Amino acid sequence: MHVVFNKRDPIYLQVITHLKKMIVSGQLRAGEEMPSRRQLATQLKINPNTVQRAYSEMEEQRLLFTEPNKPSRVTEDPSVLQQLKKEWLNQAIDQFVTAIDPIDLSIEDLLPLIEDELANRKKEYR
Question: Where in 25-108 does DSSP place strands (E)?
């Protein structure tokens, strides 16, 4: 796992964002075992307390769960996973709409552009 950290945001928040992206994209699957706090800290070259803070916050959000004497795991709760996907999508839509707001485009003009871009991306991944 590799994360390029920026200087603006707290590192634990950047770790959370990265892990959420991995969950949303399916790189981390429901029920999958997470690296230990020390392992992840070593991989990311950050303080284990930072990973602990990220994991704790994700546990509060019910995205991770930890049973006593067992590794943390990604939630298997479909409603939590669906809510994460919805939040991720809403954030992306908000950023997109903000970016294109100055451009005078109707939804009828915009939809074919989005459809073309999605089709091109699907071709690239095949």
Answer: 64-65, 73-74
Is the same domain home to 31 and 57?
yes
Question: Would you mind telling me the total number of residues written for the chain in this entry?
Answer: 126
d(CA 74, CA 91): 21
Q: List phi, psi (to 5°) of 33.
A: -70, 135
Instruction: Give strand pairing partners of 33.
Output: 73
Q: Tell me the residue range of the domain where 106 lies.
A: 78-125
Task: Provide the whole-model pTM.
Answer: 0.84
Give tens-digit pLDDT for 35-56.
999 999 999 999 999 999 999 9
Q: How far is CA 23 from CA 5, 7, 11, 69, 98, in A?
A: 19, 24, 18, 23, 25
CB 20, CB 84: distance < 8 Å: yes
